Amino acid sequence: MHVGVLTGGGDCPGLNAVIRAVTLALLADGVRVTGIERGFLGLVERRVRPLDAAAVAGILAEGGTILGTHNQANPFAWFGAGGADVSADTMAYVRELGLDALVAIGGDGTMSIAHRFERLGLPVVGVPKTIDNDIAHNERSFGFDSAVAVVAEALDRLATTARSHGRVMIAETMGRYAGWIALEGGLAGGADVILIPEQPFSVEAVAARCRANEQAGGHTLICIAEGAAARGEAMTVMRTIESSPDPIRLGGVGHWLQQRLQPLVASEVRTTLLGHVQRGGTPTAFDRVLATRFGVAAAQLVQQRRFGHMVALQGSACTAVPIADVADRNRRVPPDDELWRAAQAIGVCLGEV
């Protein structure tokens, strides 16, 4: 049996741990493994490499992905050919390689492309990957814990300068349309205010918390997700990339909030956009273990011929869900989420009036 492995979409800590685990588990079963470089770009541009035990040695703790990735490479709407569908040529290359199956590691966009290849006759197993923790039917994604750790440390550092100067400090996190990073990172970092996309916020409610902290002689830490928006306002779009499967790039809501808060409070307001430091670096121990579990589970699905499924964590167990149920869907913070209720219980301002 010959299995291809690729990583699609954005990078995140733990990808190499998955590559290592799925490769070693398949090799132990006598399977030939080929790495496809830069996601689906490698299938279009014919860029592959063999994966053996030596190729994946020493990469468990390494950030990024040794195979490379690409967040615009969609063979069904190829950016290198004016949006043309080159999937037939891609499938011809798959047959030329002699691939019996593909393990696709990525987010909802990657799963959508993988599902379309499944319908063309390529057996696929998916592995969920996103720092945003927003893949449907999966309770925890590797990379998320590492991103939360970065946010928590950033808030710890911002707190010392905020305390010294009596400032309002805003930290803007990633997360796209889901608030998981801001919510969990904000709780871990002791934020006074947490603002997420699922709950439109009131600028006046945020200002009221800042003024109350001022009167008490304190400072204010605000953790805001890039997709958050005030009531009646649209999300803040940094730019649009038309050739991307997800063309909207969010960013800048922290500075938007700073401009509107400053006239309402006495303290100086400053903003830090955390950006891609949340994606980079060494994965946490939790993410290394979870990624390893996902890689082994993916190899088991291949061995069991359970194609068309994605590995998922539900409760404490690894399971599998149909890729069709995941493609182009997001998991957002529900209004009755335990973390949301915990934040309310300890007095965190969530932007509500």
From TrEMBL:
Q: Where found in the cell?
A: Cytoplasm
Q: What class of enzyme is it?
A: transferase
Gene Ontology CC: one annotated term: 6-phosphofructokinase complex
Origin species, per record, is: Rubrivivax albus
Describe the task this protein carries out. Catalyzes the phosphorylation of D-fructose 6-phosphate to fructose 1,6-bisphosphate by ATP, the first committing step of glycolysis.
Gene3D superfamilies in the cross-refs: 3.40.50.450, Phosphofructokinase domain (3.40.50.460)
Q: From its record, what is one biological process in GO terms?
A: fructose 1,6-bisphosphate metabolic process
Q: Which PANTHER family match?
A: ATP-DEPENDENT 6-PHOSPHOFRUCTOKINASE 3, PHOSPHOFRUCTOKINASE
Under what name is this protein listed?
A: ATP-dependent 6-phosphofructokinase
List site positions: Important for substrate specificity. G109
Q: Which cofactor does it need?
A: Mg(2+)
Reported EC number(s) for this entry are 2.7.1.11
Gene Ontology MF annotations: 6-phosphofructokinase activity; AMP binding; ATP binding; diphosphate-fructose-6-phosphate 1-phosphotransferase activity; fructose-6-phosphate binding; identical protein binding; metal ion binding; monosaccharide binding
Family affiliation:
Belongs to the phosphofructokinase type A (PFKA) family. Mixed-substrate PFK group III subfamily.
